[in-house]
Automatic annotation (TrEMBL):
InterPro entries: C3orf33-like (IPR042421), SNase_OB-fold_sf (IPR035437). This is TNase-like domain-containing protein. It is found in: Membrane. It is a single-pass membrane protein. It comes from Laticauda laticaudata. It comes from the Eukaryota. The lineage of its organism: Eukaryota, Metazoa, Chordata, Craniata, Vertebrata.
Length: 147
């Protein structure tokens, strides 16, 4: 997934380094990023015309968030290898660890793609798929129409 950023000088094709976005993640990004927002890029590598970056967005006066980590924290993507950095380097493992920690927060809180159905939700789905219940519902509708 690429973010296309532009101004009067041209367009930048930016990829969130170490993150594989889901479709919900793309929607979240579109809602989260505003044209007037201040954005910083930590360039990690370049592949063809795309830049692999950590993207930092200013939030409020004194705070900012790393979009790569926030997407993982919300369960809107998965951690993948960081392109553009040597896998043996200490910076690779430092950044990869940050991403994995963000992803683990989503896993523990069961957010986004890590959300699991509760026992009640599973039971309701199982019952609604049960043939006897479906036939019983059809019979009840037929009976209601006859009365």
């Amino acid at each position: 997934m690429y973010i296309i950023l532009g101004n009067s000088n041209g367009l930048l094709l930016v990829r969130l380094a170490g993150v594989e976005l889901t479709s919900d993640g793309v929607i979240w990004l579109k809602e989260e990023m505003k044209p007037s927002q201040m954005i910083w890029f930590q360039l990690l590598g370049r592949k063809e015309s795309a830049l692999d970056c950590f993207v930092i967005v200013k939030k409020g006066r004194f705070s900012s968030i790393c979009l790569n980590e926030e997407i993982l924290r919300q369960g809107l993507g998965k951690t993948v290898c960081i392109e553009g950095l040597a896998h043996e380097s200490w910076i690779y493992w430092k950044l990869h660890k940050r991403l994995l920690q963000a992803e683990m927060k989503a896993v523990k809180k069961r957010k986004g793609i890590w959300k699991e159905e509760t026992f009640i939700e599973k039971l309701k789905e199982h019952i609604s798929n049960y043939r006897f219940i479906q036939k019983l519902k059809q019979f009840a509708i037929w009976l209601r129409n006859r009365l």
